[in-house]
Design goal:
By secondary structure, the chain is of the alpha/beta class. The protein is 45% helix and 13% strand. The chain folds into 2 domains: 199 residues, Vaccinia Virus protein VP39 (Rossmann fold, 3-Layer(aba) Sandwich), CATH 3.40.50.150; 81 residues, Orthogonal Bundle (DNA polymerase, domain 1), CATH 1.10.150.170. Helix 7 crosses helix 8. It is globular and about 60 Å long. Bound molecules: S-adenosylmethionine. S-adenosylmethionine (SAM) binds next to helix 2 and strand 2.
Length: 321
Amino acid sequence: MTLYNYHEPVLALEIISLLVRKPGVYVDGTLGGGGHSLAILRALFESGCSEGSLLIGIDQDDAALREAGGRLKEYDACTALVKGNFEDIEGIVERVCFERGIQPKVMGILLDLGVSSFQIDTAERGFSYLRQGPLDMRMDRDSAVSAADIVNTYDEKDLARLIYRYGEEPRSRSIARAIVLYRLNNGPIKGTQELADIIRGNATGRDKIIKTLSRVFQALRIVVNGELDVLRRVLYDGIECLDGHGRMAVISYHSLEDRIVKTVFAEKEKSDWGPKGVGLREPLERGSVSFVTRKPIVATEQEIALNPRARSAKLRVIEKI
Ligand SMILES: C[S@@+](CC[C@H](N)C(=O)[O-])C[C@H]1O[C@@H](n2cnc3c(N)ncnc32)[C@H](O)[C@@H]1O
């Protein structure tokens, strides 16, 4: 059964059971249409944990904030929706809690990475190679650099590097060459379909074309929104924000994101025993988190059948010690 038109929340039951355990401050760093936030709020109320609880919902997209604002209306009193980037999580939590006169005791942080179905399906946002739209791809429409700026100003070498590094596309060099050649002959590339046609000309076989298109579009989106850098920052700063036994849950959708989540969580779990051979009895510094899930949780076939976006989702959860 589909619950939400804007964006069906992925792994929602797992998120609720692993994240919502006590009253406190919960941060949904990727509010989107508010699907997960709504589920968290309902769980807080149903389990008698609503007293003293606050949900802070962050998104950098005004359209998402409008949509979520409508959906979460009945929980207005214990919800604060903030336009911002989740990389600023510490400042946002401090400010909102100060304004409300509550302790910033964060019991749960959720990050459901990437873009929402709504953003992808809105042609004018330029996220999809299936829809005619401007080459935009900014989640935050106040930010300065769009995909068109990158596609039309990067030189061939930088384009190839970007497509290879952030799209993991083996044909990165020939695609970059084709983009630059097209620009020389036709002027700036303006639309998603113009770019998609150039990419199509550089891949053969239906499956390969679709993979190549999604890899190149993914690469551009990652660079436009600085996605991997802000992810690293929010993982470190988010862990700092958590109160003892507070949890952080992260859903990633591609290997570049998942690798970062896995690496940062493993680093924060490990104690520092100093240089090898010193034989300390106590570590210099203890790990600050423990794993709630050592292996990532993935969606069931049943969920995937209802919500195909769940197919590539990987959920990792840690707990602050
Ligand atoms: C996958 S959707 C989240 C959907 C949401 N969980 C729901 O149930 O409706 C990701 C959302 O996070 C937002 N987002 C992604 N990166 C962000 C960042 N660095 N800071 C703030 N919002 C971000 C996007 O604009 C998008 O609305």
